[in-house]
Records
---
Amino acid sequence: MPIELKKQVIDILKILKNKNTDVLASKLSKELDIDYIVLMSAINDLIAHDLAGFRESEINQVTLTEEGMSYLKKGLPERQLLNIFVEKDIKEIEMDDLLKSSNLPRPIFYVGITNMKKNRWIAQSKASGENKIFLMTESFPKTDLEQFLSKFHDDSIMDYGSLSIEETTNLDILNKRKLIKRMSKTQRVIYLTEKGKKIKLSDIKELKQVSKLTAEMLSSGEWSTVSLKPFDITIPGPTLKAGKIHPVINLINQIREIFISMGFTEIRGPVIESAFFNFDALFQPQDHPARELQDTFYLNIPKVAKLPAKDRVLAVKATHENGGDSNSTGWGYNWDENIAKQTVLRTHTTATTIRRLAEYYNNNDTPPIKVFCIDRVFRNERVDKSHLAEFTQVEGIVIDDNANLGDLIGLLSEFYRKMGFKKIVTRPGFFPYTEPSMEVSVYYDKLGQWLEMGGSGIFRPEVTYPWGIKEPTRVLAWGQGLERIAMLYYEREDIRDLYINPIKWLRNQSY
Ligand code: PHE
């Protein structure tokens, strides 16, 4: 059977035969001015007849950063500074004057100065009491680094697989100066098979394929010479880029479902919280390090928060000073109401569960009460790939008579089982507001690792007594961050992705 190919495919085969050498697919697509995808689909037609093939290989490339691009045009900062000397025929100048006439931002100016010294173009002296710069030579040929930079031309990409040692040194310098970025790319090299090299074009029949018959074809009789393009039902349809629920919200909804299926009710609380509910009501002493500015965002507007009824405030004060009626000796210091009135951005959702204890008191509620909270909290953390300054916590409490540690472990096991973690372990932990306290870890099959999930415990009498929750009624509590789990679920290495929203990742998420 003769080989039948579309006209375009035959044309490409002809070009490949004429070239008589392997070609880079991206180059060929540029050269022929046809779309890369169209080219590769033509190549696939050739592959189907064993006429051609392609190899894939990784190539390492560097590209100029925006700053690098601007220096390619205007010269490196050292050259820009030198130009001032040359243009104005200056032999010596004061550092500050040079800075002013350079119009360069201060850090870049100093980079320029440092490199001018390295190039031995200038010397610096403070001998006269002034900070002066002296021009050292008369000719200033392009440095190796400058020559290397100019190799980027306007196309800012360079392969670095085959650079000389000297070029590599310059590349490293540009890299240190953050003027280039490294990237790797897959390239395809197209070649003809033996069969493809041997075949005569005259042996190939042109395939006239149409996707629909027109009235003209029918009346002209052309219809009898064409073949109909078969439908390929395996080709996926166009991607639908519609709006969808964000993965983090999806996860929150799943966790919400879990709590609700376990008989919990959702509560919400204010983001702007009093130190009272964020710390004091949790029996955290007023000089506790977690309260410090470097962890907690304190607010100026509003500067003070409203506290609950006077007698409740006094009850909390008493737990700090002498334990109140909780059988504790307290922390033994003078509790200051003004510190409790400070406003903060809630640092944990435990503030909100404590508000539920206050409500329990005000409503004269009776146990059991099971509530949860999934909400935003804030900590003054340096943002990096595993830390955010605002994130989400997931927290649950159970108020019940004779609730005990066994109940808590049971609850935690059930909760994490529903989250997809079959094995959990608890270890003793410490929180100022729970006793006993437990750290919870779960086993993550996919990674074959134990992962720390969060804290838990039974609220201390100092925390519950001010709200009338006394033996035998106890409060079980646990809490954890949400974003760490989101990173695992969605296999993100950088926690910031959850909020920076890389569009490619979001598009690949299910609805
Ligand atoms: N609030 C704790 C945290 O922010 C978690 C926790 C909640 C611990 C409830 C014990 C009980 O990490």
Note: DSSP finds 21 helices and 20 strands in the chain.
---
Amino acid sequence: MKLSKLLLGLLLGCAALAINAQIVIKFSHVVAADTPKGKASDFFAKRAAELTKGKAKVEVYANSALYKDKEEMEALQIGSVQMLAPSLAKFGPLGVKEFEAFDFPFMFDDTAELHKITQGPVGAAMLAKLEPKGIKGLAYWDNGFKSFSANTPLKSPADYKGKKFRIQSSKVLEEEIRSVGGIPQVMAFSEVYQALQTGVVDGTENPISNFYTQKMHEVQKHLSITNHGYLGYAVIVNKKFWDGLPADVRGQLEQAMKESTVYANKIAQEENDHSLDGVKKSGKTTVYVPTKDERFALKKAMAPVHIKMTDRVGKETLAEFYKATGFDPSKL
Ligand code: LMR
């Protein structure tokens, strides 16, 4: 009798604990807190706490504090971390090669063209392709367009020849660098500053918000505003974890994500503009805006990447992208 009472008490105690237990969501990312992605993830954490009335707590780990590029995807799949916002380039190495279409040079002229994909059925279908990998895609968040930097000026395609450029792990980006005679070097984001400082690589590409907040301007003398390719994110969660959430909490988190996506896409351009001001004010890097002809020469030099990488990404996916953007590599 005594023992069964004890057991009952224990059971009730456990049930109460389970009911009151706070749901902790670890959200890991590799960039600084004061970037579009950093600010949007902090915004999500705040709204998640408010909307769930404290039932869910989102812990944001910025600047690769928990995991570096490659490790974070594995950590999500095994459930050591619940939420990430990797750049879209990170899904090719996972085996969902359609995402590499986002890496094609000069694919998008502006975010309006990009949003036709990320905010439409093509983008949604691409996120659905992550589900067999145990990943659920919740949203696309913008960063912006990449520019090239080095210690020597980058005006014509010939200026890239023989230089080592750090890129993310992407077969398309490898071809992009090779198309102008450069040498691609795949490296984790957290290692780029040191690699530039020590001369392991000569240059790199990234939106200015990443360039500035990682202090790359301290170790790169020239920044050329090429806007040659897009870098943005997919916010993803461990599917089993997400599907196992109480329905009311999941709904509140979905609402928090909706609001965070509006916020992320609103601040992305502002953050990049602000960072460009910072680079200019630092006086450490010469900022160069290529002329229309110089930019066209780069676009033409990189056009063969589209032809070469068509089969890798898939004709159907590329056709959808070209329909949205009007880009036609054969016309260059
Ligand atoms: C990079 O590795 O250059 C980017 O993916 C970093 C980021 O997440 O913005």
Note: Residues 247-282 form the longest helix (36 residues).
